[in-house]
């Protein structure tokens, strides 16, 4: 990690670095977009023929008969894993489910004195595809984090895809009762979910993190199929004035080991703490090659003039994961995916078992949204019903607004309800 002071001689270089961090994001996607566009287009136009061709090339898929994982294979995977891991997966699932249930929005209506009834009804999305990476590490936790909120929301069809799915991911699918699981991934898997093929019916939304090709594919299909967010490399910021160096360093190393491109930042106004954390990080990353590479590339300690400046920089960076010293610090946190409070709240606890989702906004997107939640899987449909009394109360003002906008049809649709009905003339023939 490198130490950069935000004051004194290094003020300008610090300002340039922070400005770069504020606009980090999807630039790397541009390098793979031509290849991804070709793959997505092929699957969209050729269906299974292209999907299976890419599956053989990139995922080692033997043939069409092995594309879909059977329920028996998922049940067998559940039996193959250690009993202790089955218990851990079950505990994590319970924690995630209980948190999602508390997040679930409610239907409601209210009626005013003049008779206007308004409210909302909550309805689930019809079909969701959950992407489960299977690169460096098996990630059953990602399946739990993406599928459980969808189930809590009442999504009737939850589909999982993963290239070369690990036994742990298949076991997690069995635990959740998932019936559709496909051995496919990459940009071609995203395209299949978005547009559908003979083997994989299309879904209405795609969620879950993936590599650069997966993220670029999600961006490509986003106008045709909803997505959760464009997830980049993992990010961690620890902003602390009194944390323990070993604990701060261990969290920085833990998130850095996800990816050589991961971003790890420590922000403090205490120079002694900054230097001690840097020493701890170096020692702890020595035998962790991925974390070591990541920290050498992207590890930064920002030494600020004051604690207030440290807090301001934290919000400007808008990190995916943020650790702070105490609950009182939440008063200044404005932009972060998920916040970990105090020395006992190791960030990996949030990756697995706390309950809040670990699919979180990266690249500064925490300025405008939080992590994946049950809210990503429902539609809030608003409802309104007028009585004649409420129309007489509010209609004239709506009429004036419509007329001011020059929308004659709007105004007349209101006026016809405010006017007394004309009596029809009788005729003697």
Briefly say what this structure is.
By secondary structure, the protein is α/β, with parallel strands linked by helices. It contains 16 helices and 14 strands.
Structure write-up:
- By secondary structure, the chain is α/β, with parallel strands linked by helices.
- It folds into three domains: 2-28 and 232-368, Nitrogenase molybdenum iron protein domain (Rossmann fold, 3-Layer(aba) Sandwich), CATH 3.40.50.1980; 32-229, Rossmann fold; 394-418, no CATH class.
- The chain is built from 16 helices and 14 strands.
- The longest helix is centred in the N-terminal third of the chain and has 21 residues, at 83-103.
- The chain is globular and about 90 Å long.
Q: Which architecture of the largest domain would the CATH scheme give at its second level?
A: 3-Layer(aba) Sandwich
The biggest beta sheet is recorded as: 6 strands, parallel
How big is the Rg?
26 Å
Supply the CATH class of the largest domain. Alpha Beta
The total of helices stands at 16
State the helicity in percent bands: 40-55%
List the uncertain runs.
Answer: none
């Amino acid at each position: 990690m490198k130490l950069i002071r935000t004051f004194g001689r290094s003020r300008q270089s610090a300002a340039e670095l922070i400005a770069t961090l504020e606009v980090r994001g999807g630039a790397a996607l541009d390098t793979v977009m031509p290849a991804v566009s070709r793959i997505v287009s092929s699957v969209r136009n050729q269906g299974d023929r292209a999907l299976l061709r890419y599956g053989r090339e990139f995922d080692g898929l033997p043939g069409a008969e092995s594309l879909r994982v059977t329920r028996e294979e998922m049940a067998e995977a559940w039996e193959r894993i250690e009993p202790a891991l089955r218990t851990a997966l079950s505990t994590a699932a319970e924690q995630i489910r209980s948190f999602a249930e508390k997040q679930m929005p409610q239907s409601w209506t209210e009626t005013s004195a003049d008779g206007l009834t308004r409210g909302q009804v909550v309805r689930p999305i019809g079909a969701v595809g959950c992407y489960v990476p299977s690169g460096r590490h098996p990630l059953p936790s990602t399946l739990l984090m993406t599928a459980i909120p969808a189930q809590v929301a009442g999504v009737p069809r939850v589909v999982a895809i993963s290239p070369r799915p690990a036994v742990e991911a298949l076991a997690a699918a069995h635990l959740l009762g998932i019936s559709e699981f496909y051995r496919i991934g990459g940009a071609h898997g995203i395209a299949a979910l978005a547009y559908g093929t003979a083997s994989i019916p299309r879904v209405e939304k795609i969620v879950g993190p993936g590599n650069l090709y997966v993220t670029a594919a999600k961006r490509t299909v986003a106008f045709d199929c909803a997505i959760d967010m464009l997830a980049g490399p993992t990010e961690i910021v620890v902003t602390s004035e009194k944390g323990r160096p070993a604990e701060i360093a261990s969290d920085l190393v833990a998130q850095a080991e996800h990816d050589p491109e991961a971003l790890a930042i420590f922000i403090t106004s205490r120079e002694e703490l900054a230097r001690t954390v840097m020493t701890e990080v170096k020692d702890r990353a020595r035998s962790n090659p991925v974390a070591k590479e990541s920290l050498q590339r992207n590890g930064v300690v920002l030494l600020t003039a004051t604690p207030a400046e440290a807090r301001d920089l934290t919000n400007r960076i808008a990190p995916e994961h943020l650790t702070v010293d105490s609950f009182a610090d939440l008063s200044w946190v404005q932009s972060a995916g998920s916040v970990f409070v105090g020395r006992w709240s190791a960030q990996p606890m949030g990756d697995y078992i706390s309950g809040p989702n670990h699919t979180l906004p990266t690249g500064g997107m925490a300025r405008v949204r939080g992590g994946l939640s049950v809210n990503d899987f429902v539609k809030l449909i608003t409802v309104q019903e007028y009585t004649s009394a409420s129309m007489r109360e509010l209609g004239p003002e709506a009429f004036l607004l419509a007329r001011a906008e020059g929308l004659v049809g709007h105004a007349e649709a209101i006026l016809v309800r405010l006017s007394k009905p004309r009596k029809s003339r009788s005729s003697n023939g």
